[in-house]
Amino acid sequence: MDTVIGRTGFHAQHTKNVGERGAIVHEMMRELDEDSIAYWATRNPNIVIADEVLNEAMVNDGAGGFRACADRQEVLDYGADRVRRVKRKFRDDKLDPKTGKMKGGTVTTSLLVSHLPKSMCIEIPGYYPVLDKKTGEPVVDADGDPMMRSRWVARDRDDARHYFQEVVQYLTDEAIPGGTEAVLGYDIQHSESTPHVQILADTFAEDPKDEDALRVESSRAWFSHRDVKDDKGKQKSGPTKLREYHAGLKQHLLDLGYDISADFDEARHLVGMGKDEYGQTMDAKRHVDTLKDRAVEDHEKLNEWDTSLLDLRDQLADRAEHLDERQRNLEARESELPTLRRHVEEMGREDGVKAAAAANDKIVKQRIAATLAPAWSAVDRQRKELEGLLAQAAQDRENYLIAATQLEQYNRTLQPLVEKWERANPHTERGAKAQRSATLIRQIEQRAAELRENTPTDDVEFGD
């Protein structure tokens, strides 16, 4: 079994419309009423309704901490009070004539999502069917069997709660511009494919010019801002800040002794990939892994067929050598016939009797027939046996070529992924694993080519 690697990180999404908070909280804290659970369960196949009772909704208590939330409106009311303290009016989106997109509006709200590391989970294999993104129907593998994926549940829910509280604390201290006061609420969820926490925060911080007011600090925290620069005096970009937040969160949790990898998944957390997109990516990866496993199985079958064909070829060679020996014996006996005829003629001349010569000729023919008949019968029998073996070899060769063609098709399907694996950084654990997979596929391709070159031909012919 492969060692489970624990990874930490978070995904950030931002919105400009304060009105979208209602929909966010409705999904985030759906466990607060049965209607919401039913509504979202029909839209998210990962939701396990029976486990909704395990989720924990928390709202800002306004005193520097959080308390259990009984009504989603508490979260929205707390956020509305902070909106009223923002003195400067929010900017509206404007159409960019160059790109044709709306831009320039004020970002007011952030949703941060962080999953529990796999090292703190227990895997339940084959829990969910893999569903087609477009049709919603189960996806099947090359054998027609439904593809399944695992569910991960917290090994210890108390430990999971403490972990998520540390994540919330770090993000409020280092990433969210208004600190704890800017976090409207958060929800720890155990009812989906992986335990995770969703944090709803605004982008407002205290206005240094007015202690009773707030100002928007989204650019300072998440995007480029003229006052936020690196050690060289260069203005930091949004991706640079994200990398720093991720690195800081990782180090914070490592210092606390959590069993997590020293790396974080940049491919997931820094390119805007949310939990839905990540799930779809993992489904696609599982499909590719299935194809790779099938290719390995076919490779093993080809090796078995290759061995069988080589054995059959050796048997044919032995039979051919045996027939050659029989042929040489017949030719040797035929070479004795002139000597036998001369001997008969000499006997006829010595006796001077034509009848005797005719009788002797008949005797010669009888002796020839008696000598050659068993040999020719044996040759004919051996020829029929060999023709049967050749027919079987031709059928095996056809099966072999069909399998080789299927293997080549699998290899072409895997080609883009193999090329990506070959470009992976071999100095990382993920990159090394990717390159080992690529090497395996290349070995399979080479072996398939060698087997095709060594395929026995069906051009064996026999004379009369």
UniProtKB/TrEMBL annotation:
<protein>
    <recommendedName>
        <fullName>Plasmid recombination enzyme</fullName>
    </recommendedName>
</protein>
